[in-house]
Amino acid sequence: MELNSLYQEVILDHYKRPHHKGLSELKDIQVHHVNPSCGDEVTLNLSISGGIVSDISWDGVGCSISQASTSIMTDLVIGQTVAHAYKILDNFSDLMASKGTMVGDEALLDDAVALAGVSKFPARVKCALLGWMAFKDASVQAIDGSEKA
Ligand code: ZN
């Protein structure tokens, strides 16, 4: 894979020193997502409080892209409203679907723009999206649960 070297450093940094990794006791919902095509796994604990993503913790194994992307995602969405978190997620999904034609909105995506080059490699897009899809799944379940309660 050819990724810009600065971007590669951002990804490696998140891979080696992942943010919010290590499952916290605190959670409304736990999900476990796998990407069988690469062998990536992410377990994600999510707490939502008053429409705000109050906490995410996670654990996982797999390639640098899947683990770095999950780390980057937690930095971006913790503390945001669920609506804003979805806006970030949609924007990142569009970037991953762009087949290398988009550079990403750095104001919204911050470190996640480092993953823009991954969109040129369809086999790796699932790696990059794994943690994000786990967050989406967990948030839908958390919101469903709180509406029924
Ligand atoms: Zn992977």
Question: What does this entry look like structurally?
Answer:
This protein has 149 residues and is α+β, with helices and mostly antiparallel strands. It is built from five helices and three strands, in the order H-E-E-E-H-H-H-H. A three-stranded antiparallel β-sheet has the order 1-2-3, covered by helices on one side. Helix 1 packs across helix 2 (64-77). The longest helix is centred in the C-terminal third of the chain and has 27 residues, at 122-148. It starts with a helix and ends with a helix. The structure holds zinc ion (ZN).
Short descriptors:
single chain; 149 residues; alpha+beta; three-stranded antiparallel beta sheet; globular; binds zinc ion
Summarize the model shown.
It contains 5 helices and 3 strands; from the N terminus they run αβββαααα. The protein has helices at 5-16, 64-77, 82-96, 106-109, 122-148; strands at 29-35, 40-49, 52-61.
